Amino acid sequence: MKKMLYVLLVLVLGSTMLFAGGAEEKKAEVVDPNAPVTLTVWCWDPMFNIYAMEEAAKIYKDIKPNVTINVVETPWNDLQQKLITSLSANATENLPDIILMQDNAIQKNVMTYPEAYVPLNGKIDLSQYAQFKVDVGTIDGNHYGVPFDNGATGTFLRRDIVEKAGLKVSDFNDITWERFIELGKIVKQKTGVSMISTVANEPDFPMLMLQSAGTWMFNEDGSAYIKDNPVLKEALRITKEMVESGVCLLVPDWNAYIATLNNGTVASTINGCWISGSIQAEESQKGLWAVANTPRFANISSSVNYSSQGGSGWMVMANSKYPDVAIDFLAKTFGGSVALYETILPTSGAIATWLPAAESPVYATPIEFFGGQKIYEDLVGFAGKVPNVKYGVFNYEARDAIARALSEVMQGTNIDAALGTAQKNVEFLMSE
């Protein structure tokens, strides 16, 4: 009996010492708040996202001189692939502290790897952001994304080319896609310049057309809505007509697409407002551009002249050694600095979804590059009229299926047949 009591006493004392030692060890790991800290950020687009992040780093340097932001240019497709590869192998040591995530990919990434991202509930005041942007980063009541750009689309026009064809910028406001094609034919005939360009077999036009009608590739219950989607059918038909009529020029990749805007190969682009940064990179075209709203469907009553293309948010990775610093950085810059948005807006077109920034007088400033038009005031107005859609968990799988369907349609396949195949492919992926 005495021996048993002795053993128990030893175990209790040993456990007490172990817990005490553990607590002491944990206390020793507290990081000096003034120690040098480097946060690595993955994002893409030097004229837009990277520029914005570098400007945010300058602002935070004045607040916390010990914190350095290391921005690594990572194209979106590469970022997504690196993320999946590392997380699926549970090898997170090479992942950054902060990533930029496209809005329509947040839900899939968080639901697939819920432990990989830091919830931001109560750490950043998300009530100060546009609600539709907060919603795309909210999963099961947890908020994961710090909203950045909103992706509102516009028709960015070369004023000089349009006027050479005998038209005016105002001719492109509040029009249908059918009218856009008619005007594009006039521009092509009078100037020899194609009206618009797009990367071959990329479904950018169908996607923005879908959102303008307030619909997407999935039903409310999450099932695929592709084969019998009348808006999607019309979107593929119009895209094919634009290409076959010579109104739309197909290019092989993104760099070639940007080149068509900068070298005058085309008279316009219809894209998210973030494209203005790439447009303004060509300083020789200062004063030659203008902005109108987005075409709508003629025969679909839910369609409006407003849509969204892209849009993204900043996310903090759970593997970060300094998650609290990363959150504080985002809270004091993208979620707390009007000066940041006043700096990046005129050059990059980064229209804030952080509401206090939108009240800045900078938004009402005439932009010389766009002939004195107050384009950011206009684009903020466009953003407020964009129909909200639910992208769904399998958004990218569906987008890829539509890209293949578009390619088939361009080669002569019947639209119904192409969308029927796309529906089957998406349903198969969803069943795995």
How would you describe this protein?
It is a single chain. Helix content is 46%, strand content 12%. By secondary structure, the chain is α/β, with parallel strands linked by helices. It has 2 domains: 37-150 and 310-359, Periplasmic binding protein-like II (D-Maltodextrin-Binding Protein, domain 2, 3-Layer(aba) Sandwich), CATH 3.40.190.10; 153-308 and 388-431, D-Maltodextrin-Binding Protein, domain 2. A 5-stranded mixed β-sheet has the order 2-1-3-12-6. It is globular.
Number of helices: 17
How many distinct beta strands? Answer: 12
Strand content: 5-15%
For the terminal residues, how far apart are their CA atoms?
61 Å
Give the full name of the CATH homologous superfamily of the largest domain.
Periplasmic binding protein-like II
Unreliable sequence segments: 1-29
What is the helix/strand order? HEHEHEHHEEEEHHEHHEHEHEEHHHHHH
Shape summary: globular
Rg measurement, Å: 25 Å
CATH class of the largest domain: Alpha Beta
Main sheet: strands, sense, barrel: 5 strands, mixed
Brief digest:
The protein is an alpha/beta fold and 432 residues long. It is built from 17 helices and twelve strands.
Which SSEs are present, and which pair or pack?
Blueprint: H1 2-28, E1 37-43, H2 49-63, E2 67-73, H3 76-88, E3 98-102, H4 103-112, H5 131-136, E4 138-139, E5 142-143, E6 146-147, E7 153-158, H6 159-164, H7 177-191, E8 196-199, H8 204-212, H9 230-244, E9 248-251, H10 254-262, E10 268-272, H11 275-280, E11 289-292, E12 312-316, H12 323-332, H13 338-348, H14 355-358, H15 375-383, H16 395-410, H17 415-431
Parallel strand pairs: 1-2, 1-3, 8-9
Antiparallel strand pairs: 3-12, 4-5, 6-12, 7-10, 7-11
Helix pairs in contact: 2-13, 8-9, 16-17
